[in-house]
Amino acid sequence: MNVAAPADRTIPFCTASCNTNSLVAIGDEDGGVRLLESAKDGKPKFTTAYLAFRPHANAILDLAFSSDDLLLATASGDQSSQIIDMPSQRTTYSLNGHVSSVKQVCFQPGSSNVIATSSRDGSVQIWDLRCKGFDAPVRDIRVSLEPSVTDLTRTPPNHKMTWARSVNTITEAHANRQPLLANAAPANKATPTLDAPSKTESPGRRGDVSITALSFLPPGREHLLLTASEANASVKLWDLRTALNHRRSRASPLSSTKQPESHNKHRHFGLTSLSLSSNGGRLYTLCRDNTIYAYSTSHLILGHAPELSQPLSKPRRSAGQEKEGLGPIYGFRHPKFHATTFYVKSAVRIAKDNNSELLAVGSSDGCAVIFPTDERYMQRLNHQRMHPSDPPFPRPRPALTRTDSGTGLSTRLEDTIPIYQDGSALVQGHSREVTGLSWTPTGELVTVGDDFAARCWREGADARDLRMGGEKEGRRWRCGWAEATEEWDDDDG
């Protein structure tokens, strides 16, 4: 895999790939957005910004494109989100409803009008751009990010944007209330590590449980929303049509998944990111215990669950009693994967054309780690370990091996589910924590980190040459590769 990096001295926090082309948006700590060309032979090269503008005066923590790439949604530390018209790079809608930093933003599948945002204030807000809002003058959003250019490019004085209305609000989405489930485990007394604001963000929150990640379910179930928090590893499922329980005068989820049993014996760990598999059958959660947990989306509600059926079921008048969802069914770990902050994210490469599905995660170890997700290999290798007397068979590539625990913190956790640890670390690309990452439609991976760099990783035969060829004539300069065992490179087949 080859890499390149644009020269810059602002820390990039997040990245999002377009859905219809090879451009990638990168948001930084100063509120700027750059679009980079990720195609190998694209013009301009990845090292030069295709387009740059600054929609916020504070850090951009998340980005999301609409399905047609005509709109870009931002989430910022200035407590707002903006909807930007990409052909003109002008803010058309401002989403102002949170009272603390906005952590994540996403479009509802199949819609360019419905957006969900989550915040450190503990709330989730749903916005519909078709609803009438308030007119307001636009702020200056176009400014050169080049140090040599000092003139601001102001938008026309007659240009206006709309302050959108929130159509649904889930307050205290993951607040620490009394257990609603009859067989819920007692609260863990250990204090979890909190999602502390960065130096560029407004503190603004006192006692709220930060909503660190959210995701809509795929088309057909797009009315269902998943949320995660800093408090623990439980994922909540919400039906946006019946989120409010009128008897309790507060929002009520359909269900909450069980936490990993090892957390009940040690301490609680929050989640930093949610990612769905290509077919929507698996949910991958990135946990602060340095583990990625896999859930079955068909078992987010145990027992009779008409809400998860196809086609859409009729909504109930109220959310009713909160149900229980199945806990994780297996997990991934790697010696070079550690999530020491809530900025570390994950992303799934959709299985398409000749590209297999892969799960990529950032790491505080200065690298990204890639895990294959094909469960056929996991089942086969698990069977091999359960029956050591069975005759050997050729080892598949990519292969997964089961381990009882990882390193460091993981060695103190008593796992009750299979943990697989045969991912590949992408080394020499970053020197500090890797936070945001995204997959392009053609299968390239773009990563950003605290070393002021954005990197584009591509598959190809060059990776083997970089691993085996050494440092001769500076051939590895500004390049990185995927770690592999010696047997991998020695195999000519």
TrEMBL record:
Gene3D superfamilies: YVTN repeat-like/Quinoprotein amine dehydrogenase. Residues 185-194 have a biased composition (Low complexity). It comes from the Eukaryota. SUPFAM superfamilies: WD40 repeat-like. InterPro entries: WD-repeat_CDT2_adapter, WD40/YVTN_repeat-like_dom_sf, WD40_repeat_CS, WD40_repeat_dom_sf, WD40_rpt. Pfam families: WD40. WD repeats lie at residues 53-94, 95-130, 427-457. Residues 185-207, 385-410 are annotated as: Disordered. This is WD40 repeat-like protein. It comes from Stereocaulon virgatum.
